[in-house]
Amino acid sequence: MQHKTYSEAVALEYGANKAPVVTAKGEGELAKRIVQEAQKHDVYVAEDPRLLAMLSRLDIGQEIPPDMFTAVAVILSWVYWLKGMRPGDEK
To answer: Pick from 8, 15, 50, 69: most CB atoms within 10 A?
Structure first.
């Protein structure tokens, strides 16, 4: 099985916050470790270069700004659907 190489990654956490928060980000080996850790914990990994470019400008601990809500909501709604969840189930 061939593993995809990620040159950059950003991790978001949502559920306890009013908006998703950047919890990790990195390039190269750190990006690879972020993705591996997500996969190990059955966290969905989205591949969206435009969203990644926007999110990578944020600091760790920073909530996403309102202009990113729609793009992140699309990803979150897909994850909810894949996992058979409804909003509020994560709490």
So the answer is: 8
